[in-house]
Automatic annotation (TrEMBL):
Protein family membership: Belongs to the class-III pyridoxal-phosphate-dependent aminotransferase family.
The name this protein goes by in its record: Aminotransferase class III-fold pyridoxal phosphate-dependent enzyme
Cofactor dependency: pyridoxal 5'-phosphate
GO MF, any single term: transaminase activity
Source organism per UniProt: Kiloniella laminariae
Gene3D superfamilies recorded: Aspartate Aminotransferase, domain 1, Type I PLP-dependent aspartate aminotransferase-like (Major domain)
Matches recorded under InterPro entries: Aminotrans_3 (IPR005814), Aminotrans_3_PPA_site (IPR049704), PyrdxlP-dep_Trfase (IPR015424), PyrdxlP-dep_Trfase_major (IPR015421), PyrdxlP-dep_Trfase_small (IPR015422)
Signal peptide span: none
Keywords, ordered alphabetically: Aminotransferase, Pyridoxal phosphate, Transferase
């Protein structure tokens, strides 16, 4: 029986939440007069709140996480069984699910070799940065320590992860930041820095080389990039970009770190977003969809060559990777991840993402044809964005409040969508969609229908 069919009174839960819970990304002043939203139940692609309202979740748990949908009993059972048998031991020792999941994961990532477990995307990226810094010290006398990151990309919420994030509003009030992180230009062709051109992807990649030469190639150890820029506006890479980026990295002996925290585990129609672009990274990080939110887990995956940098000098007591993640040792994460991966395989969800993604993009282009406020439609698989503009000729972004009004209207219709917010000065104007990999055409029709009505209402004034 779903929440919508029940008559439970959750007023005490709401009041306890109001009095004691500090919510993420929330201004709590409003909760003095408005009840905080509390989600009680989820099934498939739908969720119910404490007041019995039903919503179609088009953002997979609010932050692009619940890839295989809600209510998966087999994942819950796998976690329960593992916790009863062996819930935790520090990752200095191994576990059965950790061993099994690592093997299965690496089978999906040709060229990669080793898996380091932790419990969030921010932490996975921190591990990668520590790997780069330690290699710099052990191999280059500390000099090749700089890490490049891209304007509009996001890599996490800790101070060092924010240091590598190209979203200025997210960084406001949290400095000073960790030194040694250097920004390179974005690759959003719709917002081309070079005007209209046929080789934007190459130009955007060469802009990275310009930064490397300015900083000194002997000081740059790695570059971290999202395969598709996520929270920065769902920016798909332009033609030729990734191949040129990899060529530049090889030319200057720079490690290529791909942040798959959002795109990983099927979101784009392949196991990982980078696999669309024929590139071979040195480090790949992942989190959200690894276990679809059924347990906390993230992975920092490296090639064997990177791994070997930490075992080539066993006589040096400081040469191994001296790092630990407490809850990287919790066996629930890999147990859930293993069953999550089985579901993706057995239900052919990658194929569903490809088919439904094409259908969604077609429907979104239909919205663009109908509504002048839609300036651009971008996406890969079931990860799509609509950039809203005041005028298509000037491409002036709408105010953030306009995009949020669309989100609010969809919510009132029972459909939860996302939008860039308080991230990019003047460019919080992209609606974001990332429904579960199990979604159907009927689900997508409902999502697009809600956005259509919201855009009509908002533009009518």
């Amino acid at each position: 029986m779903t929440l919508s069919e029940q008559t439970n009174d959750f007023s005490e839960v709401i009041e306890n939440d109001r009095a004691h819970v500090w919510h993420h990304l929330s201004q709590h002043k409003k909760y003095e007069t408005v009840d905080p939203m509390i989600m009680i139940e989820g099934k498939g692609i739908h969720v119910w709140d404490a007041k019995g309202n039903k919503y179609l979740d088009a953002v997979s748990g609010g932050v692009w996480t619940v890839n295989v949908g809600y209510g998966r009993e087999t994942i819950a059972n796998a976690v329960r069984d593992q916790l009863v048998k062996m819930n935790y031991f520090a990752q200095s020792a191994g576990s059965i699910p950790g061993s099994q999941f690592s093997k299965k994961l690496i089978e999906k990532m040709p060229g990669m070799s080793r898996v380091y477990f932790s419990n969030s995307g921010s932490e996975a990226n921190e591990k990668a940065y520590k790997i780069v810094r330690q290699i710099a010290h052990n191999k280059y006398g500390g000099k090749k320590h700089k890490i490049l990151y891209r304007d509009r990309d996001y890599h996490g919420t800790t101070i060092t992860a924010l240091s590598s994030s190209g979203q200025a509003q997210r960084k406001d009030q949290y400095g000073p930041f960790t030194p040694g992180f250097v920004e390179v230009p974005h690759c959003c062709e719709y917002r081309s820095q070079y005007g209209e051109c046929d080789d934007y992807g190459i130009k955007a990649a060469l802009a990275i080389e310009e930064v490397i030469l300015r900083e000194g190639p002997d000081t740059v150890g790695a570059i971290v990039l999202e395969p598709v820029t996520a929270g920065g506006g769902v920016i798909t890479p332009p033609e030729g970009y990734w191949q040129k980026v990899q060529e530049i990295c090889k030319k200057y002996d720079i490690l290529l770190h791909i942040d798959e925290v959002v795109c990983g585990l099927g979101r784009t129609g392949k196991w990982f977003g980078y696999q669309h672009y024929d590139i071979k990274p040195d480090i790949v990080t992942m989190a959200k969809g690894v276990a679809s939110g059924y347990a906390a887990i993230s992975c920092t995956v490296t090639t064997e060559a990177v791994f070997n940098e930490f075992k080539n000098n066993p006589s040096d007591p400081m040469s191994y990777f001296r790092d630990i993640s407490t809850f990287g040792g919790c066996a629930a994460g890999p147990a859930a991840a293993l069953e999550n991966m089985r579901i993706i395989e057995e239900e052919n969800l990658l194929d569903n993402v490809t088919r439904m993604g094409a259908y969604l993009m077609d429907r979104l282009h239909g919205l663009k044809d109908k509504h002048q406020i839609v300036g651009d439609v971008r996406g890969k698989g079931l990860f799509c964005g609509l950039e809203l503009v005041v005028d298509r000729k000037t491409k002036q972004p709408v105010d953030e409040s306009v995009a949020q009004a669309v989100v609010a209207d969809c919510f009132a219709q029972g459909v939860i969508i996302g939008a860039t917010n308080r991230s990019l000065h003047g460019h919080n104007n992209t609606l974001c969609l990332s429904p579960a990999l199990i979604c159907t055409k009927a689900n997508l029709d409902e999502i697009v229908g809600a956005i259509d009505k919201a855009l009509t209402k908002v533009t009518a004034g």
